[in-house]
Every structure is written in C-alpha cells, then in structure tokens.
Amino acid sequence: MKKKWNSHMRDWASKWLDLPPDVASEVPRIEWIGNYRLRVENYKKIEELTEKSISLSTKLGSLEILGSRIVVKVIDPEVVIVEGEIEDVRYRSKK
Amino acid sequence: MPNTVEGEVTIECRGANLTPFLNDVVQAGIVLRQIEWKGQELVQITILVPDFKQVIALLRQYQCKMKIVKKSGLPFLVARAMRRKFFAIGAILFISFLYMLSSLVWKIDILGNEKIPTQLVQNLLQKEGVYPGQWKGKIPSQEELKQHLLNQLPQATWIGIQTQGTRVVVTVVEKKGIDQATEPKKVGPVNLVAKKDAFIVDLAVEKGNPLVKVNDTVQKGQVLVSGKYGDPTIQEGGQIVGAKGIVLGEVWYESNIVVPLQMEYKKFTGNRVSKTIPMIGTWQIRNPFSKDHPYQTFEIVPKESFLQIGKWRFPIGWTKEEYMETEVEKRVLTPAQAVEEGMDKAKAEILNVVGKDGRIISQKILQQSIKNGRVYLKINFDVVENIAVSKPLLQGE
To answer: What is the ipTM of this complex?
Structure first.
C-alpha cells in the first residue's frame, strides 16, 4: 500500500513539475552506445551472469542483456556498465 | 588515476553462490570493475585495495574460494621498492649526493692579480668563508665579501666575485703602481741624480752635500746632491749619510694634441621600459608575443633574481631587463673652442707626468692646423718639476 502511494506521488511529481520520467520514477534508464557499451541506471540486483548474458532485476521485471564476451565494466549500487558485443536487450515481465 | 594511487587487485572467485555474493558486495557500496564470467562457478573481478578485506569477509560468508590474479598500482610498487630496500635507498642517496656535491664550492679562481700574491687572496677568502668544500649557501653576500676584501687589500681598486656552478671566480683589479713608485725604497744611502736635462730653479736639501747651485744647467745622470760629505773629488774620507731632498729644475715639454671638431656621444633620454622574463636555471622563457620595446637605439640593463628561502637558492627566478633609450648627441666645436680643449687636455697630461711637486710656468702653442675636421696642436710647456731621483751609493768602492 505504502509503495503504491509512493509511486503514485512520483508520477504526479513528474507530471506537474515537468521532470524527466527517469529522474522521478524508479524505472531503469538505459544508455546504449553502439553495440558495445550499455549503461543501466536504477537496477536492483544482478540475477545471473554468464559470458553470453546478464540479467538484472529492475522495477519492471528482469532486464536481459544478451550478446557475447560480456563483461561488467563497473558496478556500484546505482549504475552498471556492461561491455561486450551486445545483441539484444529485453525485459521479461515479473509474471 | 585514483585507481592507480589506491591500487587494484584482480581476483578469481570460485563458488556456488556467486551471484548473491556479487549483489551483496555491490550493496555494501563497493565498486566492482571488470566482472568477467570465466566459466561455471568461476568469476573474475577487480577491486580496489582498500575494499579487499571487506570482499574477503563476504567471500568467506558465501564459501567461495579466491585466487589473486593480478596486482597493480602504487601500493604494490611501494611494497616492491621496500623489498629492494637497498636499491631504493641507493638511488635516493645517489641523487641527494649529486645534488649535495653540486651545491659545494669546488674551485676558486683568482684572476687579474699581478702584484698581490694569490695565496694572500686565498687566505683572506678562507677567513671570509670561501674555500673549496664550502657550501655555496654559506658564502656571504657578494657586497659584504667585496667590502671586506677591499678593506683588507688596499692594493686592489676593485674586486669582483662570481659563482659559476661549483667555481668561484674572484677578479682583482690592482691599483696602478703610482704609490709604490713614489715610496722611497730602502736601499741604503743614496745620491740624488738628475732625471733629465734641466735648469736648476731651486734646491731644498735635507741631507747630503749639494754639488749644484741655482741657475746651473745639469745633464741627465749628473749627481745633484751627494750622499757623502766632504770634497767629492777625494774618494777617501767623508761621512756617508745619504742624500735626501728636492731639486726643482726647469724642463721643457712638447706635446702633440689632436682634437676632433665634431664629437658624437651617447646620451640616455630617460625613457625606459622594463620586461620581466621568467627563468629556470639559466634558461630564459621568453614570451614571443610580448610587446617589443619602442626604441631604435637603446641599452639593456639585465638584473637577475632567484627565488631564495633562507640560504637555499632555487633554480627558478626571473630576469628584469630594463631597456633604456639612448640618443646620439653631436657636439660641434669652433676651432677656438677646440684649441682651448686641446690645451686643457695637454695640461692635464703634463701635470700627470710631472708629479706632485711640478707646476706649469708657461705654455705656448707652436703649431696649429686644421685638417680633416681635426685640430692639430703642438704645444710647448715650460715646467718646473722635481728632477732628483735616488741612486744608490755604491759602498765598498
């Protein structure tokens, strides 16, 4: 209940204060440079890590990054930077 | 860059619960780099050295095994240097030793002295604290040193001290030997002898037997005052006392003088511009875009100053260059003025030659001509001067 209220407030703030949605809400913000560098903000956890794929859990479900020779360049509680030959980025919903 | 300073460790972790482990590490606020999946239950990560302990603790918690793959950065470099302690100490010692040696005085050159013995100057310098093996910083200031040396070396008119690297160059300029020549030499009893052909005007004999009278004409080398009493023609007898006195004789001089009618000389106009140029060592860093001075003819007066803390002088400093505008001034003399000037010049020369007892009685211009913009003068001077010089009395004769 509380969490819902919180997200509701965020949506409202982003609409009324004209803030970009990525700042106001907790959804992930992804920046993909070429096909080799991917920067993900607002992730929650690493779910899986192999050479071919990384999955991160986010508010919208798990975010899968597929490719080959994938390396996590830097990781801290807010940002993940993934490098490698990235072929596919997709969400898999929670359900 | 901060990674290099803090140091990085690359480790390989092996275990079953790698993903939760990684999540926990990230949640603990540790930044992970270069996470590479190496195989089943094997992952390679790079962490900063300060985080290492925390990561190890977490690894234990998840029962993972760890192997260090690579270490890089400053802490490891320092550690390696510590292991080769003697090498590092040696390197530091070598550099400081070299620096130390270059800040010592190694050689003192004394130039320009002819009569003053080098040894004497060296001893004086030693007393002032300038000697081989002295720290350059401990040498007293130039002005002070010059003053002290000049006080102790009355024969010198000027002393310059320069430090060139590890060498100190002392330049001595000696006084011209006037006072020494006039000082009577102690060579025993003397006769007074005529210096040149002259006409005796006055005699002032303190000691000795005068052999000439006023209004006598004497020739060069003639004995004027004998150091022996009694009849000079008789060799034997007579008390030897030595002669002392002044014999004034009238002498004629002729001098040839040339005076140019036009003279050019440089004069400062008073306009000046100064520039400051930074220096490292002796290397001047000139700004190629700086404004040039506006003068056509000028003189530069450079002044160097170096950064100094206490007695330590840094090789960083600046040169202040002062550009002073000069002007060529022409002076045109009328022939009459030129003659007057030539006369003054000739008089000054003559007075210099005749010494302190001499004086000019009269002068006469014998010849005067103007040629090629110059005035040529031939002047005759009638001068009274001391013509007596000492000549040792040969004893045992």
So the answer is: 0.74
